[in-house]
Automatic annotation (TrEMBL):
Belongs to the LysR transcriptional regulatory family. GO terms for molecular function: DNA binding; DNA-binding transcription factor activity. One of its GO terms (cellular component) is protein-DNA complex. CDD domains: PBP2_OxyR. InterPro entries: LysR_HTH_N, LysR_subst-bd, WH-like_DNA-bd_sf, WH_DNA-bd_sf. The lineage of its organism: Bacteria, Pseudomonadati, Bacteroidota, Flavobacteriia, Flavobacteriales. Residues 1-58 form the HTH lysR-type domain. The keyword DNA-binding applies. This is LysR family transcriptional regulator. PANTHER family: HYDROGEN PEROXIDE-INDUCIBLE GENES ACTIVATOR, TRANSCRIPTIONAL DUAL REGULATOR HCAR-RELATED. PROSITE patterns: HTH_LYSR. Keywords: Activator, DNA-binding, Transcription, Transcription regulation.
Amino acid sequence: MTIQQLRYIIALDDHRHFAKAAEECAVTQPGLTIQLKNLEEEIGIKIFDRTKVPLKPTVLGVEIIMRAKKVLREADAIRDFVVNQKNDLEGTVTMGVISTLSPYLMPLFIKAMKDVAPKMHFNITEGGTGELMNWVETGVIDIALMATPTGNPALKEHPVFNEPFVAYLYPDHPMAAAKVYEMQPEDRPELLLLQSEYCYNAQLLDICSITEHSSTWDRFNYNISSIETLKNLVRAGLGFAIVPQLSVLNEQDTTLFKPFAEPKPVREISLVVADTFSRKLLLEKMSSAIYHCLPDSLKQNTTYKKIRWNDSPYFINAVSGGK
């Protein structure tokens, strides 16, 4: 017994005519007749008396049709509930954001979402890429805002924007006066990385064409966990950094950072959800809010080179414990 078969017998009861019922159900008359026969054989009861003109339900058929209408009302209610949930902009959503993006984008996003969905409540937490992927898969959070592609088939990725990387230089760097940055051989061993941010670090090593990394500091082992710390170390002349463009949005001294020549290296930023997530309208509103609160410099058309991380030898080695 199927929902469609129940719709057929209700249409037959309404029209008491096979051709008219078939037309309403957008099915051929023989097809409708076969489905009715199959249903009657399955339950062992004649629903309609075909000897009557017009068609007439049997005594038991009247009861079956009444119950079928009740079942279809419940089925339609489930469908309406799902549609409303997909279009609902109320309630609570748990959201995770990569720590290399959160400090710079979240203040803008929160302000924008207050205007777009004033009845929504967001619980936002920062995390590393690996953590966010695990949290989405296990249901700890509903949505992650992170660099993609993840390469994880259990997750759905909804790209929002491409964020360019920029070179962050100390004041007397050889390219401090240049308009765009070109990789210098002496910069590679001075590249500063973040502790445990294997995905982010893999992207930086890719940009620099480095397969392995070792620090040039012989007296210090400094586990850096924030981009702001990286930038302060560069200002002190202790290294070279590659940082996301949003992290320099409010920099007063614009001579400290330089864009790369085209094609610019970028990271793709996406809203990532489990494959069972159904609130499409919410994702659309969030994606629109994020994009519209970005500075114009990130919306310009230019030639990009998307930097991946999930297939990096450095990343694979790091997460497998070889690092």
